[in-house]
Structures are given as structure tokens and as C-alpha cells.
Amino acid sequence: MASSSFPDVWAWIQNLPPITQWSTNSMSTCIYCSSSSQPSLKLSITKNPQSSFLSFSILADFSLTFSLWTSKPLKLNSTHTKFIDEETISNLFINFIEDVLNYCPNKNTSLLRIPKIDSLNNFGEIFNLSFLTLTFLICIYEAPADLRSECLNTFKNQLACVRSRETTKPLVRLLGSSLEEQWMRSINLAITNWIVELQATNHTLKTPSPLFSYAISRVGLWKVQLYCPVIAMDIEKPTNPLPDERLWFSLNYHQLEGVIQLNYKVMVREKWVDVIVNVDNIRCDVIRLVTEKLMAERGAGTAEKHFPSRISLQLTPTLQTNVLSVSVSKSSENPTREIGLEKTIEGSFDPPNSVGLKVSAGETVTMSLKPWKFEQSVYGDSANLNWFLHDSENGKEVFSSEPSKMALLQPKAWFRNRYSSAYRPFTRQGGVIFANDEYGANVCWKVDKGSSVGRVMEWEIKGWIWLTYWPNKYKTSYSETRRLEFREILPLTLA
User: Mind listing the pLDDT tens digit for each residue in 116-156?
Assistant: First the structure.
């Protein structure tokens, strides 16, 4: 039966006997077994009898066994007492990484630099996760239909488990931020293709968002990094008619990339402890998962994609027994309203006894409104931070509305050419950045000092991100809003 945890491939390789003791030219282990009557997947190692090279393969074990993936030839160290030495295992690990990145449309593996593996903590876990990720992608693109459906769900769940999520952190640190983005784009492109395939057969796949998020806490910084294919996000507000095939392709072959960075500071007072958190950076981008050429050929062009329309964060101490109060530092906004009055009076006298008086009064009202509105609120011991995008024409919140028919006909509406206009509420790439220059208002929790100092408190960060599509350059009346929810726990030492 399918295992709930991925096989420990690292341990299996380490425990193999020296190659001189092999009775055959290959060794294999099962990495996915459904049942005795169904095909399985195996990892096989094959030595070349005529040379000192060997190769690793992922095999589909049917009545006839065939290869889905094969590594580069790896040279053996004949003087080494173990089956495989550090240099060879490092080259194999790099092979895993490079072959995952090969699925990224804009790959650049020249930045890949791996330190000596004996200097890495828990390298075996990182090795296993990289191989699991590669196997997952290989199955999406290469596995036969008889095998793909069941094994993909198994591998997806294994990637989403707590152990894999924790191992993701050292793996992406090892890759560095640039390769991390390519790594996640490779995975999410594969998942997008898988979901498209399932939708074509009226099946659905719910991708767990925690699979693509992780959090770190260090040196006064909380950071949450998240990735999610747009096609896997929940649709909240679609409109009819449905998008045509080209627009559908453009909207679905993107991924959301988000970074939540919060600064924290602990100040020990005489009788209490202040925990102060403020926004450092909130960044959200909607990134294309295919090449510009393919988007032009099959889609509606690179200009048609979702944009962030609302971001909501909720910060909560998980243990609230010692929390005395929570305070926010930003008042409710009170926008300036300028009112101008124009009055004219016209009088005429009609002799001998009648008087005609005509009065006309005009009143103009103007109000200054920024595209993005930032609000803070408190619920219990939770602090809520909200960013809303507003329609510059009518002031409505974009995530919960849709463009009017009149606005759709106006070539100068704010959402038309929205990534090149001088008044755009986004970056030129279509994302948003909220920094502490304008959104740095802080939240302060006052915690009882008695039993708290020196303890580690956990804070829950829950978040929701809404992406909205309104037509940009494409002629369509379709619009929709999608939503992603994530949750992370971050530690904080009160000292």
C-alpha cells in the first residue's frame, strides 16, 4: 500500500555494500507501491561493468520495466571503502536540484553553489526532500496514467507533511533566494499542469497552501515566504460569461509570490514586558509560469493577469494568559473633504405688482482618496492589519466588487493599462510593496512580567491575500477574485 512517508532514500544509499560486493549490476528499492496488482515506482542504481561509472534511475515497474528519469553518469571512487563517497553523493544531489530547476521556464543554474555536505545539518533530510520533489515532478510529466493519479496524491501529501515543511527551510536557505524562486516556479508550473489535466476530466485538486509557505524568526525579524499557483486559489467572485480559452490560459498560468516581513522588539519594563511589532515589508507579486512566447501564442498576452486587491494579517499570541493589553498605533482614517459652494441669484421685477426671483445654487464636493487604504483593528488579543485597494472612480473596495459596464467601455479607466500608467497602484511588474515608510505603524502587546521573562512565546500569523482580475488590454467583460489563506507559528523569547 502507499506509504504515508517517503522512503529514506539517503539511508538506503548509505547502507549499500561496496560495489565490489554486488552480485548483479544493479540494486533497487521501492519508492511507491500501490498494491500487488498495480504498477510501482522504484529507484534503481546501475553500474557500468566496462567503466567506473554508475547511474540512478526512477523506474516504472509494469509487466515491462522502463525508465522515467536517469541521472547523469557518476564516477565512482575506487579507493573509497563505502559504496559512494561524499563527492559522488554531492554530485547526485546537485543533479536532483538541476533537474527540478530544468522545469522552470526562466532557469539559471549558474548560481547553484553547494557547500560540503558534511558541514550541513540534517543533510539526509534535505537529500530525501529534493529527491521526493524531483519524483513528484517526474510523475506529473512522465508517469503513465495507470500510475500517475494515485502516486501523485501520495507524493503531494508527503510534500505537505510537517516534516517536509520543516526540511524546506534549510533546503531553500541552501539554494538562496534566486534559486528558491525558480524551484517554486518549477513545482507550481507542474501543479498547474496537473490541475488543468484534472479539470479536463471534471476532477478537482485542492492544493494545501502550507505546502508552499514557510516562516523564520531571527535577529528581530519575522518572515513568512509563500508561493501558490493562481489556479489553486479559491474563487470568491467570478462573473459570467466565463473567460475564453486564451484568457483562461493567461489567468491560470501564474503564481502568487508573497513575502511578509515584520520587525519585532521586546522591551522589559519594571512591572511588565512590551512586545512591539511593526511592518517592515509586505510584498506580493503575480509571476508568469510560462515563457512570454508561449503566453502570446496560447494566452491573451502577458498584460492579462490578476493583481493584489486586499491583504489581511492577523497576529495573535497563542498563549494569552499573561497578555494584559494590546494597542495599535494608527487611528481610523478621517479623509479630508473639501466642499465648494457656488450660488447665483437672479431677480426680475414685472410691474406693477409682481416680483420674479430666480435662485440657482451649485455645490461641488471633492475628497482625496488614495488607491490603497490601510487599517488596524483589535479583536480580543489579536491585532488585525488590512490593506484594501479602492476603485478610484467610485471608491468601492475592488476585491468585493466588479467594474461597471460603463467603466469597461472607457479606455482611460484606471484598470486599463494598469501596469504602465503614471497613476498605477502597483509596481510596473504588477505587484505591490508596503514598507514601513507609510505602513510602519506598530502593534504593542503588554505582557505580565511575573512568569514571562525568559520564556518563549509563540505568535500565530494568519493571513489572507485576495487577487482580482479586471480586463487590462483584452476585450472581455470577465472579472474574478481569488483568495489564499495561510497560517504560520513563530517563536519569540521574552528577554
Answer: 887 788 899 999 999 999 999 999 999 888 788 788 888 98
CA distance 279 to 263: 6
Name the pairing type of β-strands 337-350 and 442-448. Answer: unpaired
Q: How far apart are CA 164 and CA 162, in angstroms?
A: 6
Whether omega for the bond prior to residue 241 falls within 30 degrees of 0, making it cis, is: yes
Distances (CA, A) of 479 to 247, 390, 427: 11, 16, 21
pLDDT at 2: 47
Distance of CA 433 to the CA centre of its chain: 15
Return phi, psi of residue 228, to 5°: -155, 130
Q: Which three cell numbers stand for residue 177?
A: 533566494
Residues in Cβ contact with 58 at an 8 Å cutoff, skipping those fewer than 6 apart: 31, 41, 42, 43, 44, 67, 68, 69, 70, 135, 138
Q: What is the pLDDT of residues 357-413, one digit of tens each?
A: 444 544 445 555 678 999 999 999 999 999 999 987 788 899 999 888 888 888 888
pTM over 0.90: no
Q: How much is the pLDDT for 438? A: 81
Q: Element (H or E) spanning 324, and its range? A: strand 323-328
Nearest to 190 by CA among 233, 243, 247, 133: 133
Residue 229 CA neighbour count, 13 Å, CB half: 26
